[in-house]
Amino acid sequence: MKRIYLDYAAATPLDAAVIRAMAPFFRKQYGNPSSIHASGRIARAAIEESRKKIASILHAEPRNILFTGSGTESAALALQGVMRAYGKSAHIVTTSIEHAAVLENVRKLQREGHSATFAEAGANGCVSPAAITRAITPRTVLISVMYANNETGAIQPIQEIARIIRKERVARTRVGRGVPLFFHTDACQAAGFLPLTVETLGVDLMTLNASKLYGPKGVGALYKRNTVPLAALWEGGGQEQGLRSGTENVAGIVGFGAALEIAEKKKKREARRLAALRDYFIKKILKEIPGTALQGPAGDSRLPNNVNIFVPDVSGETLVLYLDAKGVEASAGSACNASTDGSSHDTMNNIRFTLGRETTRGDIEKTARVLQEAVTLLRKAPKQYAA
Length: 387
Known about the structure:
alpha/beta; Aspartate Aminotransferase, domain 1; Aspartate Aminotransferase, domain 2; four-stranded antiparallel β-sheet; 15% strand
């Protein structure tokens, strides 16, 4: 039985060209990039070449790119790094729909004495710039808003929020208030689909992750504008400008550079192809399965590969397990996403499909049939299979 993989937002297979680029650094070119002999210099040159590739795509300088061990680590370095560098009890603004990589680091900062505001998203899954404006206080040092949501695919108004931040900076300068204000975005889901030019977006910090780009797991990157102060999360050998000590993952970094470069070349054509499949899939589900509803925005306000469906009366996890038994791999929304006031947002009836380079119309047709079969059967089943 051919299995259908529709969980590309969670992980992607390695692109064949990425494997070829990485291969020499496993057995032949295994030198430590901090060594000054020939093998070390080869490893260092490979890292710097990948740094240049990524910087070029972001329209940044190579020195603005820091390599880490994951997207989560990049987010932690951005958030904790800025707030610790500031050193005082300060305020951070984020949203209630962020990935745990951001939310849990903000909560950690709260435990350390900083304060935070979590702006809520609207019914369409997007956070309004007005909500961010209302959340800013004279003590706000950092604002973190994801570029595109990992669950609903909702694309956030990053450029509009950046304009608000620029106005706030001007206002602070006029009144002589010396509190800085920086803007971070988690772009792990957006990379490969949306523009990454940091000046156009207006961001000071950007988190990226290779494993969402048909690159290797275990490597991430953080774009940092020159003017942003960061404190390291730990001490050691002083790699990555003293901000990420530890011997660099040379093969992973090489793979990251190759993966992002390939993704950029394929971006426009693949986004159009996936958006067409996405819209066909959504239309088919909503038409053929009674009571279902699309979660998040439609059309261009949504990532081209994301389909998140609300299925009343059926547990999302049960649907995922049924589909898995039939050869279709998808994802369920978290059973309970804790909000900042201790309440919860019920996503137990959601199922998420995320499409990728290997997804075909035939895959969509089969998945729609199996999903309809599953919902029909489970709605007749005992209550323990319902949410």
